[in-house]
Automatic annotation (TrEMBL):
It is an enzyme of class 2 (transferase). CDD domains: ETNK_euk. One of its GO terms (molecular function) is ethanolamine kinase activity. Its EC number is 2.7.1.82. Pathway: Phospholipid metabolism; phosphatidylethanolamine biosynthesis; phosphatidylethanolamine from ethanolamine: step 1/3. This is ethanolamine kinase.
Length: 358
């Protein structure tokens, strides 16, 4: 579907929705289909049915299964939908999904993220306390960060470049050997391998009743892992929630600090405008609200500024690793994606920022 002309694609989406929702001709003729903008991986279409119900049809980006475990993603989407923290999945087809459209305002920039800072922190704490076992593999819960980084390093090592010009730019402008060395060095460092006796392959889930674990960003939770501003919907009319997270392709168990450091980086947008990085005050407000929501209040734990500052000490490390993570991701995308986005320049920008944080 990804390589067809847009009008043919729209027709195929229309036929797909008709089959899934068993629409009669007179109803299907009223379908309104509109391509959504903002994503840099997949194609997304909003479909409005004749009764004004909105749904989304997502067509996976070309060869993105190299980066994303689509079986695991589907499992997570279904489980998140059951728990009311994600969109319900209506149907699955060969290279995409049909799922629930979340009504509300899509946040656009750092100003929006600051405005909803507390609500985002509360929602992230709710996510991090989720317990979603990967039943289809019975895999043991462990942080995904270095598993992904190592996988993506191997992808780049073994890539057959489709565009010689892009390959030459990659070889000239990106020190890939340093990336390979850094991934292994950091993964085996004291921070991740031996900190407090942790085993980096079998980290412990953060226990909301244990204050030491609550304020330790190296403990793990169920993370979004891609909390860009555009992946946050403000739901002004909702009774029980203010924001909802969307686009859960990369979600899974990970270091809680990574999710927060990554979100702080995303204040800067795809343009990587460092002046938009959240101030110390915003960071402290976010972490205070996050910890206050995460901790089990029944055990009379009170979050203090000391706890906030303790948690924040390690966030720069996770911000740095976020740049490495998305820099590698963008290198792979530069060779496989057919979307109109300069992935290699984006990779260069993220990796340069990563190096500046040494």
């Amino acid at each position: 579907m990804m390589n067809r002309e847009e009008d043919e694609l729209i027709l195929e989406i229309k036929q797909l929705v008709e089959r899934v929702f068993s629409l009669q001709n007179k109803l299907s003729s009223d379908l309104q289909i509109q391509r959504q903008t903002g994503g840099n991986t997949n194609r997304l279409y909003k479909v409005t049915l004749s009764d004004h119900t909105n749904i989304l049809v997502r067509i996976n980006g070309l060869e993105t299964e190299r980066l994303i475990d689509r079986k695991k993603e589907l499992h997570h989407m279904i489980e998140l939908g059951k728990r009311g923290v994600g969109s319900r999945v209506y149907a699955v087809f060969q290279n995409g999904f049909i799922y629930e459209y979340v009504e509300g305002k899509c946040l656009q920039n750092a100003q929006d993220a600051t405005l909803y800072c507390k609500e985002i922190a509360h929602k992230l704490a709710e996510w991090h306390k989720l317990k979603i076992q990967d039943h289809y593999t019975n895999s043991q819960i462990s942080p995904s960060l270095f598993t992904c980084l190592r996988k993506w390093v191997e992808l780049v090592k073994n890539m057959e470049w489709k565009d010689e010009k892009v390959m030459r730019k990659f070889e000239k402008e990106i020190d890939f050997q340093r990336i390979c060395n850094d991934v292994e060095e950091i993964a085996n460092s004291a921070s991740f391998g031996m900190k407090k006796g942790h085993d980096s392959s079998q980290q412990q889930l953060a226990d909301p009743t244990n204050l030491d674990q609550v304020i330790d960003p190296f403990t793990i939770g169920f993370c979004h892992n891609d909390l860009v501003i555009l992946n946050i919907i403000a739901r002004e009319d909702a009774i029980d929630t203010k924001v909802q997270f969307i686009d859960c392709e990369y979600c899974g168990y990970n270091y809680r600090g990574f999710d927060i450091g990554n979100h702080f980086n995303e204040y800067c947008g795809f343009q990587m405008d460092e002046s938009l990085f959240p101030s110390q005050q915003i960071q402290e407000t976010f972490v205070y609200e996050y910890l206050k929501s995460f901790v089990d209040t029944a055990h009379s734990h009170e979050i203090t500024q000391h706890h906030v500052k303790q948690f924040l000490k390690s966030i720069p490390l996770f911000c740095k690793l976020s740049h490495l993570f998305w820099g590698l991701w963008a290198i792979v995308q530069s060779n496989v994606s057919n979307l109109e986005f300069d992935f290699l320049s984006y990779a260069k920008g993220r990796l340069e920022w990563y190096k500046r944080m040494d």
